[in-house]
Amino acid sequence: MNLGPHAAFILGAYGFTALVILGLVAHAVLDRRAQERALARLAKEPLKRDSARGAL
């Protein structure tokens, strides 16, 4: 494969793109874990209803 005189630019662009995609995937995985922890914490709390305080 001959990329010619622009090989450094082409490979750099591919490398940068790979880093951005890996960063997005890592962010999605970490955010999903955080959301699952928050959901589990909310599921453990008793349900609070505004109607329990009485009508204003």
UniProtKB/TrEMBL annotation:
Its main location: membrane. Keywords: Cell inner membrane, Cell membrane, Cytochrome c-type biogenesis, Membrane, Transmembrane, Transmembrane helix, Transport. The chain crosses the membrane at residues 6-30. InterPro entries: Haem_export_protD_CcmD (IPR007078). It comes from the Bacteria. It is a single-pass membrane protein. It is found in: Cell inner membrane. Required for the export of heme to the periplasm for the biogenesis of c-type cytochromes. Belongs to the CcmD/CycX/HelD family. This is Heme exporter protein D. It comes from Methylobacterium ajmalii.
